[in-house]
Specification:
Elements lengths: L3 H10 L1 H21 L16 H15 L4 H17 L1 E12 L2 E11 L5 H4 L8 E3 L3 H9 L3 E3 L11 H6 L6 E8 L2 E11 L7 H43 L7 H16 L28 E7 L5 E8 L9 H45 L3 H8 L1 H5 L8 H11 L2 H6 L12 H15 L1 H4 L15 H13 L9 H6 L3 H5 L4 H14 L12 H16 L3 H18 L3 H6 L4 H21 L7 H24 L17 H23 L4 H40 L1
Antiparallel strand pairs: 1-2, 1-6, 2-3, 4-5, 5-6, 7-8
Helix pairs in contact: 2-3, 3-4, 4-8, 8-9, 8-10, 9-10, 13-15, 15-17, 17-21, 20-21, 22-24, 22-26, 24-26, 26-27
């Protein structure tokens, strides 16, 4: 029999014969062996060199595999078998790259592939897969370094680990590995173990191995891209579902979570279940009598927008049998974010309900403290003794006479005068005077005002006069003894609730709260259009008492006063809309009238005005004490009790820069207000005299101090 060298020499010298023999005897076995799991090849060592045509046929078959079911594993199996025929190693494996809990790891996908091994035998059941981190073994180092490795003697390599050898009872001597990369990220590693006809893999073996790894990379990247598309598609579906469904159950967090987790479990389990052989891993016991076992767990915290953990979402056993990976983590993380937000919505909804309940309770308490009893009504009106009936059943004219009779005549007359003072009156008499104001306007009968509640009508309609008097009663209700600036600087709840005109808006809201009770709503009998008008006017009148707004309106009010002296014919000549101008002027006059009323104590007779000024100053000094102790700030002189001696001087400044303007301008076209302007000037004279006395006293004190200091020096 001829030896190997003789045969090779003959074939080299007779290439045509060699080609014909190969086409007839060898080619069919080579191609069949490359694409068949069952055909046995007599001598794979004789098939090392492959023609270009055969390569093309191999690639064509590879593409066909990629179009079938589970294309990646089938195609990879074919490629590994092809490499087995060409390189002749003991076995070949493919490890998939994944990450769990932020830790990268490798797991067996195809294991111990040979040139004729069966696909089902090489496919690894997820229940018995070999898993190890990327910082373990040469395969792990290949994924970590992202570089191919040709290890001639594994025992001499520092990265080698005998973990798999112990698991499989196999001895590894030499090794070829190559990473499969998707961009800069590894997605798998191909491995060849133990060269059959030599002690190590040659350079040509490595080149051929890397060549076919390129085919493996093409297949794996295509599968990885399809997987990522599927992941993003499921995530998009889940996010769309979450946006439309997760906020439906605003009142019950348990029902909301049940709906979310039930739907998400379906979304996560859409992968085709594993159909290969299944072997119990024996690592865990059934959790109950049903035999159900926990094989893998994915658990994530549910965190709200305040970064507070409000729950935990847990998933058990992926339906395809594989462990949860980083893609599952990303999808479920989106779900937990929505659950966190929706949990906050539930909490907010609950807090809103509780706030509403507290508000109702507070309103009940408020009504209890504010609303008078029937007994107290009779103490004030006494209709039961006089007429034998309740106030609402009495004739309004008789009621008016009763009010006048119940207040001493001297005090009754004073009610209609600018010099009216409430100091001599008791609380009951003061309430009677308030009720009389509405009777004097004639609105009690006209607007059917419940009885339990000058010449203003010359300039305002009955409805406007009614509204302005009611606003006057309410404009300082529930005052806290401090001004808007203090409320803002102290970051009070009122300042947080109202961004401007803090106290005025609180007075308005408090008044509206009171009038939500139909027994306290003096506007309840108005027609709808009248009620809407009154609501608007009521708000304008109360907000107008904010002096900060008064200063902004003074220049405009001066122009309005000027316009009021122009005849209607002149307005027409100026091409101004008479209706618009009059309405505009009317609104400003009404707002400024509220300011004039609010400051009216400055126009009262001196014995009244001086007493009111001291009461207001005492309130200011209390605020100054709070600024010094609570806010740690130095109060302005007006709020500082250490500057109490300067009160007369400050009152003169208050009259000159705040009060004088409004009464002077009003008296130009409301001649009835002239007594208020005159009273203001009289009071200024009194304050100026006191200021001069104080200034002279301070000057004398300073001179005496200097004289004494000079004597000490001598």
């Amino acid at each position: 029999m001829a030896d190997k060298d003789t045969v090779e020499k003959f074939l080299d010298n007779n290439p045509q014969f060699a080609k014909e023999y190969y086409e007839k005897k060898v080619k069919a076995d080579v191609i069949t062996a490359a694409f068949s799991n069952q055909v046995q090849v007599k001598d794979p060592a004789s098939y090392k060199d492959v023609s270009t045509i055969q390569e093309a046929e191999f690639i064509f078959e590879l593409i066909k595999e990629m179009q079938g079911n589970n294309p990646m594993k089938n195609a990879l199996h074919k490629i590994l078998q092809r490499i087995a025929l060409l390189i002749q190693a003991d076995s070949y494996s493919y490890f998939g790259y994944r990450s769990r809990n932020g830790t990268p790891e490798l797991s067996t996908v195809l294991f111990d592939v040979t040139h004729n091994s069966a696909y089902d035998k090489n496919t690894v059941n997820p229940n018995i897969e070999i898993v190890f981190p990327t910082d373990m073994g040469i395969v792990g180092w290949t994924a970590h370094s992202k570089k191919p490795q040709n290890i001639a003697d594994v025992k001499k390599d520092s990265h080698f680990s005998d973990f798999v050898n112990k698991h499989t009872k196999y001895t590894t001597k030499c090794m070829l590995t190559a990473p499969i990369m998707s961009g800069k990220k590894p997605i798998g590693v191909v491995m060849a173990l133990n060269k059959q006809s030599a002690d190590e893999f040659s350079k040509s073996d490595q080149e051929l191995f890397n060549k076919y790894v390129n085919f493996a990379a093409m297949v794996t990247i295509q599968a990885h891209t399809a997987c990522m598309w599927d992941v993003e598609s499921r995530r998009s579906q889940v996010l769309l579902w979450s946006a439309s469904k997760v906020f439906e159950e605003l009142t019950d967090i348990e029902r909301q979570s049940h709906k979310a987790l039930y739907t998400w479990a379906i979304k996560l389990g859409e992968q085709e279940p594993y159909k290969g052989p299944k072997t119990p891993d024996g690592r865990k016991e059934p959790v109950d009598e049903s035999g159900w076992m926990i094989k893998n767990v994915l658990s994530l915290p549910i965190v709200n927008t305040k970064e507070e953990t409000v729950g935990v979402a847990t998933f058990f056993n992926r339906k395809d049998g594989k462990p949860f990976d980083e893609n599952d983590e990303q999808i479920t993380e989106a779900m937990t974010q929505f659950l966190g937000w929706s949990t906050l919505n539930n909490d907010t909804y609950d807090k809103l309900n509780r706030t509403e309940w507290r508000k109702d309770i507070a309103q009940e308490m408020l009504m209890y403290q504010t609303k008078v009893s029937l007994k107290e009504v009779q103490t004030i009106l006494n209709t039961q003794d006089k007429f034998g009936s309740a106030p609402e059943d009495c004739d309004q004219k008789e009621m008016y006479k009763l009010l006048r009779a119940n207040i001493p005549e001297a005090k009754s007359v004073e009610l209609l005068e600018f010099r009216f003072s409430d100091f001599p009156l008791s609380e009951v008499d003061l309430v009677k005077c308030g009720i009389r104001c509405f009777f004097e306007l004639g609105v009690v009968e006209k607007f059917k005002v419940p009885a339990e509640t000058g010449k203003l009508k010359k300039y305002y309609s009955a409805l406007e006069a009614f509204d302005m008097v009611a606003a006057g009663f309410c404009h300082d209700i529930d005052h806290r003894g401090t001004n808007n600036l203090y409320q803002t600087k102290s970051l009070s709840l009122l300042a947080k609730l109202h961004s401007s005109s803090v106290m005025e808006r609180h007075h308005l809201e408090y008044s509206k709260t009171l009038m939500e009770d139909e027994n306290l709503n003096i506007f309840q009998k108005l027609q709808k259009c009248q009620f809407e008008t009154v609501q608007h006017l009521f708000e304008v009148c109360i907000i107008a008492t904010d002096l900060a707004l008064y200063f902004k309106k003074r220049t405009m009010f001066q122009k309005i006063v000027h316009l009021s002296t122009i005849s209607l014919d002149s307005l027409v000549m100026l091409k101004l809309s008479v209706i618009n101008v009059l309405e505009w002027c009317h609104i400003f006059r009404r707002a400024m009238m509220m300011t004039a009323c609010d400051l009216s104590a400055i126009t009262k007779p001196w014995e009244i005005q001086s007493k009111v000024a001291l009461m207001v100053a005492a309130e200011f000094w209390e605020q100054g004490d709070l600024e010094r102790t609570v806010l740690d700030q130095q109060p302005i002189p007006m709020m500082d009790r250490n500057h109490a001696g300067e009160l007369p001087k400050m009152q003169c400044g208050f009259i000159d820069f705040v009060c004088s303007f409004v009464y002077k301008e009003f008296s130009r076209f409301h001649t009835e207000i002239s007594p208020m302007f005159e009273g203001l000037n009289i009071n200024r004279g009194e304050w100026k005299a006191l200021a001069d006395v104080h200034e002279a006293k301070m000057k004398a004190t300073e001179e005496e101090k200097k004289r004494l200091e000079g004597g000490d020096d001598q």
